[in-house]
Each structure stands twice: as structure tokens, then as C-alpha cells.
Specification:
Elements lengths: L17 E5 L2 E3 L7 E8 L7 E5 L11 E4 L2 E4 L10 E10 L4 E11 L8 E5 L2 E3 L7 E8 L9 E4 L11 E4 L2 E4 L10 E9 L6 E10 L9 E4 L13 E8 L23 E4 L2 E4 L16
Parallel strand pairs: 2-8, 10-16
Antiparallel strand pairs: 1-3, 3-6, 4-7, 5-6, 7-8, 9-11, 11-14, 12-15, 13-14, 15-16, 17-18, 18-20, 19-20
Amino acid sequence: DSGTAEIVVRAVNFAPVNLTLNPSSILENQPDGTLVGLLTAEDPNPGDAHAFYLVSGTGDEDNAWFNVASNRLVAVRSFDREARAEFNIRLRVRDAAGSSFDQPLAVTILDLNDNAPTGIRLSPTSVAENQPAGTVVGQLTAIDPDLAGAGHTFTLCAGDGDSDNALFTIQGSTVVTAGPLDFEAASFRHIRVQADDGTNPPFAQALNIAVGDVAENVPPQTLSINCTCLLPGSPPETIVGILRTLGPDPGDSHTLSLVAGEGDADNDKFLIRDGALLTATTLGFDGQAQYQVRL
């Protein structure tokens, strides 16, 4: 006998092998119901239908912050990136035959410029004295919770600590001198700087700048002797007094000598040794009550 038979070939169902979310980020401060991204399954069976679910398991600690509607992942709360920048969820994709695949995913919270700067740093904070106008002191950086607030405008401003603003200028984020500074006049200078991120209220802070001392070889300003009296008949090399100098550079050493000029009439009758003025000969006061020297 002969006849025909119908052979039905059924496709074997395979479970999905991957699950993706695109995009996988959301801006902070968005309202409830904001779309995060679309869910897509990778499945060996072309044209298979899929359903997506939030499920418990490894990586599910933040499931309560989201909801799934069809293939859309949406936020059910507003996020604050400064409080937390990443959330972890666990998703499941199930095909029409009931086979499933689970995947933990991370959702990144993107930054908005929603916070004002909280501080200003200057580095370095010192400059040597006597440098010309335009000498770099240091670079300014703003302390800002916002990644989006990376671009700041810096200006000198009035307020507490602005006493020396006129001695400096700001070029971009660089503090430079407006003219030479003098360590002997002030070893520290004080400025007040404002940082503005362009969105939030500016932040202002007082900053101190140290002025470094430079050896200038400025001559002494005064020369004195602690005693100007001498007994008659004092022998040679009798100490008259100790000489002292005063100059603008602390710790400077000085060489003392007798020199020609006004008031040098009696230089030949004295000598200087180890910072002291001594007699060079026996002096009498019968015909001369005073002697003059020039140092």
C-alpha cells in the first residue's frame, strides 16, 4: 500500500542569552516616571516575543527605585547624584515559551550644575618680593560638588580679607602680581576671591599670599656706638665703645671701617677691631675736648 504522511518540523526554543539597557543613565533631579532607557533581549530564536521584569536576586538592591513598562525602564523617584551616583537593579527577560534570562545592571546618575561652589584653593600660595608685574603666584581651583560645575570664573571681590586686592590681578584661573611686592613692608598679603559656576550663587573666600624675602644687599640704615666717653690719658687700644648697625635685612653681616669725608678730622687717632672703636694712641683732652671720626 502507498500513502502520504505529514511531517511537522517544530523549531527548538532557546532561552534568551543576554539583556541590555540603552541608555543606562538618567539625569539627577528628574520627576517620577522619567524614562531611563529601552530594554532589548538577545535571543537565538529570531522574532521571539519577550517580556521584561524586575526580579529579586544578586544585584537587586535598588529595584524599588525603578519600574518596567513593556520594554521601558522608568524611574519612580528623583535622584541626587551628590548623594549617590550609581544604582543596581536585576532584570529578567522571558520569551513566549517561558524560558528566561536574568541580568544585573547598573544605572548611572548624571550630574546637573545644581550646587554652588563650597571653597576655593590657591596653589602655590607664595611669591618672592621685588618681582615684576605679571609674576605668577598660583592657580585657583574651586571646590564644587558638581561635576558639571567644572568651569568656574574667578574674580577679585570686595569683602572681608580684601585689603590687598589692588596688588594682584586674576587672569583666567591664575593669580598674578600687579607690581613688585616688598617683604619688608608686609610678609603676607590678603585677597578675596569669588568663584562663579554660571548657574548658582557665587562663592567668595579670603586667601593669604606669603611674600618671600630676597637678599637685596641694602646698606645699613643706622650706625651707632654705645659709648662716646674716654678718660684722659687712656693708653692705645683702649675700647671707646661697641659699634652697632641696623639694616633692613635680618641676619646680614657688616664690615666696619674708618673712611675719609666730612667729620674725619681725627680718624688717625682711632682704629676698629672686632666691631669696637679703639684708641690708636694716647689721647689727652687739655687742648681738645672732642674728637671726630667718620665711619
